[in-house]
Specification:
The protein has a three-stranded antiparallel β-sheet with strand order 4-3-6, with no helix packed on it. A hairpin with a 2-residue loop joins strand 3 (127-131) and strand 4 (134-138). The chain is built from seven helices and seven strands. Helix 4 packs antiparallel against helix 5 (83-97). The protein is an alpha/beta fold. The chain has helices at 11-18, 32-42, 50-53, 61-78, 83-97, 109-120, 156-167; strands at residues 24-25, 80-81, 127-131, 134-138, 141-142, 170-171, 180-181.
């Protein structure tokens, strides 16, 4: 029997289903890192729905079923996921990842994504990055940058561009999915009080060997500052 599926929420439907009290993913026992990641990945986009259905080579079908049937489908159908469903997933991740703290401790979202995508589902890395002569593969990109006084309320476009520039990074190819982790500095200090979501992201200047226009004449550029 084919597993049940619900499309991601869009436009007015997303507002109607997700807005109000008792909506979203219920938090419990330091689950905020996982709740936010799961909501971002699945509530309003289908780009990673392959995680829910495809039989990847290393795929753990039990974890895949919990993710699809207990978290993503209820989120898209009713706009609400119980904490017990996320705890069920966390318990499975604890068993598969040999890390007992997945059920009670706060983790880095990247640690969660690496575990579920690489070790449990066996998905190929989503990003290929190059710095100098070194090429690396990863599942998400963490924004690292120094405090910049001219950025008070930045948008995601500005943060990604400046982070790539300061780290001397380029995208080797256009990614099928670009998961970006915002800068954060713990409970006591945060670099930005607010970050404006960029509804579209222009990665032209982030691509390796991509033709770009000259900022002076508008023709194809031959040099990059």
């Amino acid at each position: 029997e084919d597993p049940e599926s619900f499309p991601p929420l869009r436009n007015e439907t997303a507002v109607r289903v997700l807005q109000g009290r008792m909506k979203g993913i219920q938090g419990h026992c330091n689950s905020c890192y996982m709740d936010a990641a799961l909501f971002s990945l699945f509530s309003c986009t289908s780009v990673l729905d392959s995680m829910l259905f495809m039989p990847f080579p290393l795929c753990d079908r039990n974890v895949q079923g919990i993710l699809r049937d207990e978290i993503v489908n209820p989120l898209r159908r009713t706009g609400f996921v119980r904490a017990s469903s996320v705890m069920h997933l966390r318990e499975q991740l604890t068993d598969k990842g040999q890390c007992s703290s997945f059920t009670n401790a706060e983790k880095d979202p990247e640690e969660f994504l690496n575990l579920i995508m690489q070790q449990i589902l066996g998905i190929e890395p989503l990003l290929k990055l190059q710095s100098g002569d070194q090429e690396q593969e990863c599942y998400c990109y963490q924004i690292f940058m120094d405090k910049q006084e001219d950025l008070v309320v930045p948008d995601v476009q500005q943060l990604v561009e400046r982070s790539f520039l300061s780290s001397d990074l380029k995208l080797v190819e256009i990614p099928s999915c670009f998961i970006i982790q915002m800068p954060r500095f713990g409970k006591e200090y945060k670099m930005f009080s607010k970050i404006i979501p960029s509804l579209e992201l222009d990665i032209t200047d982030l691509l390796l060997d991509s033709p770009r226009e000259c900022c002076l004449c508008g023709d194809v550029a031959t040099l990059e500052c």
